[in-house]
Amino acid sequence: RKRRDHIKDSFHSLRDSVPSLQGEKASRAQILDKATEYIQYMRRKNHTHQQDIDDLKRQNALLEQQVRALEKARSSAQLQANYPSTDGSLYTNPKGGAISAFDGGSDSSSDSEPDEPQNRKKLRMEAS
């Protein structure tokens, strides 16, 4: 009896889990049939969503690659427009502040770094 009650409750739970059967009176065969249909439908839907996710990941990777290429091109253009300092790792921006190749291009003034000669700044300003 306890086992039969458990099976009955399980079928009711399964019936309530299938949207097309919620609150409906259905035989066990109908419950199993509709549950099977719903599982197949959800598998197809999940597969479609997974394909969408994969497509979006590919698009995202391509866009990130384009961003890196554009940032590299921009950085290259900026470095060509500026003059290297004595150690080659710092460059001056048009404002005259030092830009490190490692700090993302933020302006920084350091007393320990030698200032660029004035004639270079003037040449840079005249060229632009």
Q: Any overview of this molecule?
A:
GO terms for molecular function: DNA binding; DNA-binding transcription factor activity; protein dimerization activity. By secondary structure, the protein is mostly helical. The protein has three helices and two strands. The longest helix is centred in the middle third of the chain and has 54 residues, at 28-81.
Structural class: mainly alpha
Give helix % range.
55-70%
Q: Mind telling me the CATH superfamily name of the largest domain?
A: Helix-loop-helix DNA-binding domain
Strand order of the largest sheet: 1-2
CATH uppermost class of the largest domain: Few Secondary Structures
How many H/I helical runs?
3
CATH topology of the largest domain: MYOD Basic-Helix-Loop-Helix Domain, subunit B
Distance between the termini: 92 Å
> Judging from the principal axes of the Cα atoms, what is the shape?
rod-shaped
Overall number of structural domains:
2
> How would you state the average pLDDT, rounded?
76
SSE series? HHEEH
- What is the level-2 CATH architecture name of the largest domain? Irregular
Strand percentage lies at under 5%
Unreliable stretches covering 5 or more consecutive residues: 100-128
Q: What does the largest sheet look like?
A: 2 strands, antiparallel
Number of strands: 2
- Cα radius of gyration in angstroms: 34 Å
